[in-house]
Amino acid sequence: MVTNTAVKKKKCICNKEELLKKITGDPPPLLIGEINKIRLNLFTERNSDGTGYLVLRGKDIHDRYKRRIKDLDITAIYLYIREIPRRITKVDLCYNQITDRGFFNLLKRLLIKGRSSILDLNIMNNNITYKSMEYLAQYAKYIKLKRLRINDLGETGQTLTSVAEIMAAFRNDNDGNTTVKVLDLSRINPLFNRYPYETKWLAYHIEFLLERNSNIIELHLQKNQFIAHDMEYFVRGLRNNTTLRYLDLGYNRIGDYGAELLAKYLSEAPQLIFINIAGNGIHDIGAKALSYGLPYSNVRALDISQNKLSNEGVLDLLYTIKKKVFLRYLNIWGNELKHTSCEIIQRMLTSGVLDQSTFDVKIYEVDEVFCAAYYPNPADRSKHFYYCELEYGYAQPIYHIKRNVLPEKRGKVFTKYV
């Protein structure tokens, strides 16, 4: 008699999780020395004018290979840039682990005139200190960069001494660099962490920089604890400067007196187009002073959010918006907005004096009373660009090499944020 025996199923002895990782793509950590031409070519963006951008952001590299760019990778990078037929004009190395040694290697091998085509370098949030600033000051006149990002300098161990050397490297009377257009000196560290530094000395150096530099068009000075009297230095320097278009004084402590000094300068119709004075403790007195100065100015973008303006102060500013040069960009959230000011805003949005696509407040009505809500300014991508954030917060699969269509060169353009 034949008996039916249960057929034993064969068990899979392979590791399903490891096999799935190989299929879906979970590569092992990138070993030292594996930054080669093939990988660098994948991170090179092609431009319509025949140039290229080498984008090696630390977050992107870490998501893919579980490590960041280090000093030992600089040799492979500069050899790739010097040997590739395409002209590389921009290198982005932000959020990596490059130290003073790697920066000096990059400076000597790649940034010196005659050896490089790079016009834009982003090396923010690396492990560089004041020594790199000494190297930069030493070779400043031999560098042809037009844009250099080292921010935040406070996060790279800079002090007042190193900042003074940086400013000396950009002064015309010191035979300094004449190509850098954007300078970020936000959040400077004191020499000793236990003691705050005297902001007047930093303001004093900035005054001399403004007086003796005719190239910088964008200056960021956020989070340096500047007080009202420091604005006296700034205004003196601004009156002797003819090139600056973008002034960022956000999140300092200039208060009403600082706003009055700035308003008096604006009443002289200077060349400034973008002003950021957000988070400076400005009250109605400062707002009224600005309302007297803004109508005579050429300001097209204003950020006065997160201050201490009451409804009356907001109204003083709103009544001066409709002037000869319309505001293309306005941030005012964080101040008091009541029914009267909201009604004026709604009327300006309807008439076209304000545009919702460049304004950070949304007006709605409840029981015939106008109210305000925060509306992220669609035109305010400056923070996104400033911190070099990834578009979706994490690395995207590289299906093909990115290609950029560059706009045609027009007249004078002071910043991409307006």
Automatic annotation (TrEMBL):
Entry protein name: Leucine-rich repeat-containing protein 34-like
Superkingdom, taxonomy of origin: Eukaryota
SUPFAM superfamilies, sorted: RNI-like
Key word Translocase present: no
Annotated gene: LOC106124373
Keywords for this protein: Repeat
Species assigned in the record: Papilio xuthus
Keyword Phosphoprotein: no
InterPro entries: Leu-rich_rpt (IPR001611), LRR-containing_regulator (IPR052201), LRR_dom_sf (IPR032675)
